[in-house]
Design a protein that fits this description.
Elements (H helix, E strand, L loop, with lengths): L1 E5 L11 E5 L9 E10 L2 H7 L11 E2 L5 E3 L5 E4 L2 E2 L13 E2 L11 E5 L3 E3 L6 H4 L2 H15 L7 E4 L5 H12 L3 E5 L3 H10 L3 E3 L9 E6 L6 H6 L1 E9 L13 H6 L3 E4 L5 H14 L5 E6 L3 H10 L5 E5 L2
Parallel strand pairs: 11-12, 11-14, 12-13, 14-15, 15-16, 17-18
Antiparallel strand pairs: 1-2, 1-4, 3-5, 3-9, 3-18, 5-6, 6-10, 7-8
């Protein structure tokens, strides 16, 4: 079957390790099922995998891709939950939690095999392309906002780095849930798009906000950390799920954190139940993932290049079959 896969690890030039070509069909395992992929979406996790983060040389070649929607063995339209080992279903009881492609072949292929427990029914209201955007970036944003930030309608949030998959999802979800949303981006066009999606206002990174916010959604890391901390009201919450600009900020702002009793919460992915709630939320409210572009699987390299350059707003989707 045709697939996009990591053939080599290159920490400095990750796309040098990306190959497109034929790979073996998924192996049959007890408790697992094979899904025919209709659409799959790119995540920064895929670029990090090509750098060797979370993916060891001994596991190569590895088909990339965490997210997908497709047709299961019963002919049903489904979405995949990409956290493997969370429940013990289909894997050993002591296997640690991992994201698909850290241990098992991924979704950038014509077919993928996952534990049957990880398969959810796709709402009819969502297209395959829309549903394929949800299991990583949108689920991450959903958990950051509603589980870990604990915000309620009427609260205010700052979303750093508008344009990325998680940040874009956070803007749309927060607006739909009745939150006041501020956003930042270095790019004027992305700031304009953030407002069109529901942000009350969008600013250049580091700009003073009209008011301090109840929560900050942080995925940028070092470049925006100080601004995130300074933007919080006393007792506010900073939720972080990524550090695309680096993990060591020049100023940790520890004094401000303890004096204002701020909360810093790490957040990774989300549960199967949360994904089910997110699917229902989108189906019921009309909220849809923001899609930057849709490409056939054999043009996956273009999608990777676009994501590596930061030249996107929303999700890049690959289609197969």
């Amino acid at each position: 079957m045709f697939a996009a896969y990591a053939a080599r690890i290159d920490r400095d030039q990750p796309l040098n390790g990306l190959e497109l070509g034929e790979r073996p069909e998924p192996e049959r395992r007890e408790g697992w099922t094979t899904v025919t992929v209709k659409a799959a979406s790119l995540n920064h996790h895929d670029l990090w995998s090509l750098r060797g983060v979370g993916l060891g040389q001994e596991r190569l070649p590895m088909i990339l891709g965490c997210d997908a929607a497709g047709i299961d063995e019963n002919g049903d339209e489904v979405v995949l939950h990409s956290v493997i080992g969370q429940s013990g279903h289909g894997v050993g009881p002591d296997e640690p939690r991992s994201i698909l492609t850290e241990r098992y072949q991924g979704t950038f292929a014509e077919r993928v095999s996952v534990p049957a427990w990880n398969v959810l029914r796709k709402p009819a209201e969502l297209s395959f392309e829309e549903a394929a955007c949800l299991p990583t970036a949108w689920l991450t944003a959903y958990r950051m906002l509603f589980t870990n930030a604990g915000v309620r309608p009427g609260d205010s949030v700052l979303v750093q780095g508008a344009g990325g998959g998680v940040a874009t999802a956070a803007i749309v979800l927060a607006k739909a849930a009745g939150l006041r949303v501020f956003a930042t981006s270095r790019d004027e066009g992305k700031r304009k798009r953030a407002v069109e999606l529901g942000a009350e206002a969008a600013f250049e990174p580091g700009a003073r906000l009209p008011r301090r916010v109840d929560a900050v959604i942080e995925t940028v890391g070092a470049a925006t950390w100080s601004h995130s901390v300074k933007s919080l009201r006393p007792g506010g919450t900073l939720v972080i799920s990524g550090a695309t600009s680096g993990s060591n900020p020049p100023a940790a702002e520890l004094t401000r954190i303890f004096f204002l009793e701020l909360k810093v919460v790490g957040s990774t992915m989300g549960t199967k139940d949360e994904l089910e709630d997110l699917l229902s939320f989108c189906a019921a409210t009309g909220v849809r993932p923001v899609i930057d572009s849709v490409l056939p699987l054999d043009r996956a390299r273009e999608g990777f290049e676009k994501m590596a350059d930061g030249d996107l707003f929303g999700k890049i989707v690959l289609t197969a079959n």
